[in-house]
Amino acid sequence: MTDHILTEIRDRVLHITFNRPEKKNALTHAMYAKMVDAMRAADEDDGVRAILFTGAGDVFTSGNDLADFRDTPPLGADAPVTQFLGCLLNAKKPLVMAVNGIGVGIGLTMLLHADIVYASENAVLQAPFVDLALVPEAASSLLLPRLVGHAKAAEIFMLGKRVSADEAYTMGLVSQVFKADELAAAAGKAALALAKKAPQSLQLTKKLMRGDREVVAARMAEEGKLFGERLTSPELMEAIMAFMQKREPNFG
Ligand code: COA
Question: Among 81, 108, 212, 241, which residue's CB has the most CB atoms within a 10 Å radius?
Fold first, then answer.
């Protein structure tokens, strides 16, 4: 069976690759669970100094697997996605994201917990939670408006607006934009540079820059409760059936 999450520690960097290109790297429960194990181990391992995420093929990730949302909705604190969000929030090691194509849902919201975000010119970010009859997750209802302002965040969350790499750069969601064939090397170089820095200083700096952890954690929990309720709603069923049947949803 293909390994849908590739993990490798190289030069003190944990590389995590979403590897399900035939489904646009959509993330299943099993994929989240594997990332949780890898991230928890990395946080405890002094030999790992940075974590670098990217996607296989020309997609970052199309977000949560919609069939999982429909068939086995991730509910509660034990759900692998909830644990994964906790790992992002609590990560001690710096997180580098190489956004190599479209990033939908968590493909956008996870960037709000990253430290260095490099994107390829062809990257597109989208958070169509309302289109799916859901609500934002990963504390993004707090972090995105704080970063880009309410008006731009509302276009992204409420209208499901797609944001190009250049727009994301202008908004401050992305640190730098690269040509597609230069992204991996640039992200690798940044991760390697982080891995060579004084580790305690780096971890303390990250912690200071994320000073309001409790507030962010509380918003994540609040969103998680509402998200769970939405997952069992008739509106969500209609949104997902419409996606599967390649038609417009009809919310009545
Ligand atoms: N969950 C499950 N399957 C998904 C998926 C997802 N999030 N995203 C894509 N896929 C599947 C498609 O169903 C399709 O499967 P099939 O070949 O068996 O029909 C395959 O991946 C290719 O997707 P397709 O939609 O044909 O590719 P595209 O290039 O036209 O569009 C996207 C790419 C990412 C824009 C589009 O697939 C999309 O919008 N996906 C849903 C994103 C989403 O809503 N995620 C949840 C956010 S909370």
Answer: 108
